[in-house]
Amino acid sequence: MQEIEKYFPDLTEAQQLQFKKLKDLYKDWNLKINVVSRKDIDEIYLRHVLHSLGIAKVQSFKPGSSILDVGTGGGFPGIPLAILFPETNFHLVDSIGKKIKVVNEVAEGLELQNVKTSNCRVEEIDEQYDFIVSRAVAQMETFVRWVKGKIKKKSEHELKNGILYLKGGDLSEELAKYQTAKIYELSDYFDEEFFDTKKVVHLPMKYKG
Ligand SMILES: C[S@@+](CC[C@H](N)C(=O)[O-])C[C@H]1O[C@@H](n2cnc3c(N)ncnc32)[C@H](O)[C@@H]1O
């Protein structure tokens, strides 16, 4: 929990409480439905919460904006971002029902009013968002194909509307055909060794394109 306060010192009391509660909720639910590896539960603030919040260091989401989290699994990066941006609308989607069950339980336990979930493949979603976030779901080419047509026309943030993807390692081959992709190193924001190879990729996407 100190990891979060260290990098996000302006949390309200309500947000601090939600982040605190999050670990116990995942601990309990993980015993029934495994969504986070056992080893990772002890390091949930570093490996899951802070990692998810790396997206917030690259772009703060405005009140009223809407964000789609594709392949959210147990709720990452969507749940930590929904705590940090309580006035932004988050839609968390996963094709596996039991994962969405855990996400619903955690969102309810944290009394998050800004989280909606869907148990389906993202290709079935027909809505538009300011940004589409994700971690560990698909190669960029496949991902771009899935989310085409799901980006709002008007950009209202510093970064252009599009994808904000948490990725790691050498991305030169994967991103070679995306000239407009920009890579943000999470080690520029967070000191922990875990972030040495972690990045946020921003890929602006055209409306309907
Ligand atoms: C490796 S997990 C990552 C979960 C989470 N994003 C995280 O980083 O902890 C990948 C998830 O993507 C989901 N997924 C894969 N393809 C999908 C699709 N086309 N639509 C919705 N969910 C998908 C899987 O069901 C799985 O839960």
TrEMBL record:
InterPro entries (alphabetical): rRNA_ssu_MeTfrase_G (IPR003682), SAM-dependent_MTases_sf (IPR029063)
Keywords assigned by UniProt, alphabetized: Cytoplasm, Methyltransferase, rRNA processing, S-adenosyl-L-methionine, Transferase
Top-level enzyme category: transferase
GO process terms (BP): methylation
Protein's UniProt keywords contain S-adenosyl-L-methionine: yes
Database matches in Pfam families: GidB
Residues engaged in binding S-adenosyl-L-methionine: 71, 76, 122-123, 135
A GO molecular-function annotation: methyltransferase activity
Highest rank taxon of the organism: Bacteria
SUPFAM superfamilies from the UniProt entry: S-adenosyl-L-methionine-dependent methyltransferases
Keyword Cell division carried by entry: no
Transmembrane annotation, as ranges: none
Subcellular location: Cytoplasm
Main location: cytoplasm
Entry's EC annotation: 2.1.1.-
Physiological role: Specifically methylates the N7 position of a guanine in 16S rRNA.
Family that this chain belongs to: Belongs to the methyltransferase superfamily. RNA methyltransferase RsmG family.
Name of the protein described by the UniProt record: Ribosomal RNA small subunit methyltransferase G
Organism expressing this protein natively: Mesonia maritima
